[in-house]
Design a protein that fits this description.
The protein is of the alpha/beta class. It has one domain: P-loop containing nucleotide triphosphate hydrolases (Rossmann fold), CATH 3.40.50.300. The protein contains six helices and eight strands. The strands form two sheets. Strands 2-5-1-6-7-8 form a six-stranded mixed β-sheet. Strands 3-4 form a two-stranded antiparallel ribbon. It starts with 6 loop residues before the first helix and ends with a strand.
Length: 237
């Protein structure tokens, strides 16, 4: 990701900070495995280096209900869908961040696939980037909203690769979620991952994530090699 390619997006964020007397909030969304975390970190680094602004990146994963709560609510197979998040906690967090109040968020561990008993302390910053698959469900909270897009078959392959990486890591570091997948034959493993995409990630993308695309100030489209295909800036009146 070349920093210069993001200049239009950086200008949007810098402008939002310049016109606010409080923390500028940036929402970043897109489908599973589209690169939200990598993009958000790259933007945060560029802002810090180019402007000296203090920037924090927070993932919405920390606001997922625990696996136990999801099971009790009958939402185990809806993880990542809007109803699987603690919406009140997200709203309260973004409100505190907007007011430049130090706050904290729960920690989600992807290897455990659950919330853990820990928190991330979030100091008052100039810009807070909040990224997640359904981040723009809270679009009214953000000064700038960004949507990341890749063609569905491309995102599917990125999801398969990411899941494979987690499975391979479980061969050397125990993961209660991925450990049962370690000795699964490759053909069956790929079938299971594709089923997860078809039954969870794809419906979430079509029904909830993609409909928030028109709400974004900037839409970035990726090629299969992670290069930028296009950046479209949308102005709202």
């Amino acid at each position: 990701m070349a920093k210069a390619n993001f200049d239009p997006v950086l200008s949007l964020i810098i402008g939002a900070h310049a016109t606010k007397g409080s923390t500028a909030l940036v929402g970043v969304t897109g489908g599973v495995a589209v690169g939200k975390s990598t993009f958000s970190s790259a933007i945060a680094e560029a802002l810090s280096e180019d402007t000296g602004l203090e920037v924090a990146v927070i993932a919405s994963d920390g606001f997922l209900h625990s696996n136990a709560v999801l099971a009790a609510k009958g939402l185990t197979d809806r993880k990542g869908f809007p109803e699987s998040y603690d919406a009140a906690a997200i709203s309260a967090f973004l409100g505190d961040a907007r007011s430049s109040k130090p706050t904290s968020v729960p920690v989600y561990d992807h290897h455990i696939y659950d919330i853990v008993d820990d928190v991330i302390e979030v100091p008052a910053v100039d810009v807070l980037i909040f990224e997640g698959v359904n981040a723009l469900q809270f679009h009214e909270k953000f000064d700038i909203s960004i949507y990341l897009h890749a063609d569905e078959p491309v995102m599917r392959q990125w999801f398969i690769q990411r899941t494979s990486n987690f499975r391979d890591a479980a061969r050397t570091t125990y993961s209660p979620f991925f450990d049962p997948w370690v000795d699964v034959p490759e053909e069956l493993f790929l079938e299971m991952v594709n089923v997860a995409w078809e039954t969870v990630n794809l419906p979430n993308l079509v029904d909830y994530i993609e409909p928030t695309r028109p709400l974004a100030h900037a839409v970035i489209e990726w090629e299969a090699d992670h290069e930028i295909r296009s950046i479209v800036i949308q102005e709202f009146t």
